[in-house]
């Protein structure tokens, strides 16, 4: 179940404020948690899974540091984006004008369709109401 909280946001142009749903803060699953869940569903040991996931993390980092994007099947892809100071001409743009390097994740079309609102298994509850909603039968 995806829990949300109401959040007020201001329109920067009109200065009007409105309320929107925002995903509630959660505790992230750690590598160990994921390895344990995978080990429970297959014959590979938890230690082997941790080793493979650690190697995957390392290889994604190496690929991004080399300027490559990384596509992870039906999960999606990671790529780098840059931001920096504006220049008057192309000749003025150098590595020194780069101020920030970020990683952008783009989900695959399969992941996008499986996480679409209205899909089977996607349910929402307002934070605080999640415990009550968990007790209700799923339709």
CATH top-level class: Few Secondary Structures
CATH H level, superfamily name: IHF-like DNA-binding proteins
Overall morphology: flat
Mean pLDDT: 90
Beta-strand level of the residues, as a percent range? 25-35%
Largest sheet: 3 strands, mixed
**Spatial strand order of the main sheet:** 2-1-6
User: Structural class, judged by helices and strands?
Assistant: alpha+beta
Low-confidence stretches: none
Description:
The chain is α+β, with helices and mostly antiparallel strands and 139 residues long. It has a single domain, classed as IHF-like DNA-binding proteins (HU Protein, Chain A, Irregular), CATH 4.10.520. 29% of the residues lie in helices and 29% in strands. It is built from four helices and six strands; from the N terminus they run ββααβββαβα. The protein has a three-stranded mixed sheet with strand order 2-1-6, with no helix packed on it. The protein has a three-stranded antiparallel sheet with strand order 3-4-5. A hairpin with a 3-residue loop joins strand 3 (70-72) and strand 4. The longest helix is centred in the middle third of the chain and has 20 residues, at 46-65.
